[in-house]
Amino acid sequence: MGDIRLTNLQVLNMFPCKKVGKTYNSALYASTFLSAKHKRLLLNCGCQVKEPSPVFEEASEIGIPGLCLFKNFVEKLEEQELLAAVDEQPWQALSKRRVQHYGYEFQYKIRNVDIMQNMGKLPKFTDCILKRISALPELITAEEVSMPLDQLTVNEYPPGVGLSPHIDTHSAFEGAIVCLSLAGPCLMEFRKYETETDSDASGLGHIGVCEDPESISSLNGQRNAKIQRCPIQCRPIFLPERSLLVLLGEARYRWHHYIPHHKVDFVNGRKVQRKERRVSFTFRKVRRGPCHCIFRSVCDSQMC
């Protein structure tokens, strides 16, 4: 049984079978990962094997208003220069990844920033990127002002480390969320849930594994209270290295975004190995007042 369990955990990319693995999760396993033998094993223990969902590779295909993807936003030489510059700065170690903060420190315990604690301007090595971002027509014509971007978080993800599903806290940032992927690609999944009023969708909590549905900390009520639910829509998109992802409007305020904790991503039949590291530059504009967006059920500024 131990060998079967290990084999299934490997082919399921660490999403264990209900009866084979030790932990519980929904058994919606993409057939990409499975041999015929392993499919039979899962079906024999009552698991449901589904065909893999398509992975979107263009923003125009995903059908989420406000989501933009610009491939090859920086050249390879620029990428190397940005990585060298950030590696000269001190890193802050989190449990599974390293981070750097500029402008304002993002405080993970409260999922917000302290606007009274300004750390100065964004680093000089980002000037050329910021200039190019500010010239994007999507930002210039956006309904909500995003410029100037005054907060930057740099994340370094080793292989197998992702990001829990969340929406960036409404009360912390306004306008666009802009993310530059360097050194390696990844898969990012956008999710909608059945009842956002039950969620900690504004970023004060996270989603974990708990039986079939996912366990989410509730924004209203106890911080540690858990509810269970499943996403009703999942739309994965592939982010190549050197690409720029821009989230505006609904994409920024309404949809959770999530990076699976994978070492290998499967993209429409292609096996894409995560590289030694992926470094993301996430630019934001700090909000100086409550959020008045139309997505009230996921807005921490408008929740009772």
Automatic annotation (TrEMBL):
Family of this protein: Belongs to the alkB family.
Classification via SUPFAM superfamilies: Clavaminate synthase-like
InterPro entries the record matches: AlkB-like, AlkB-like_sf, ALKBH4, Oxoglu/Fe-dep_dioxygenase_dom
Domain Fe2OG dioxygenase: 148-287
Name under which the protein is recorded: Fe2OG dioxygenase domain-containing protein
Organism of origin: Adiantum capillus-veneris
Source superkingdom: Eukaryota
GO terms assigned for molecular function: demethylase activity; oxidoreductase activity
GO terms, biological process: demethylation
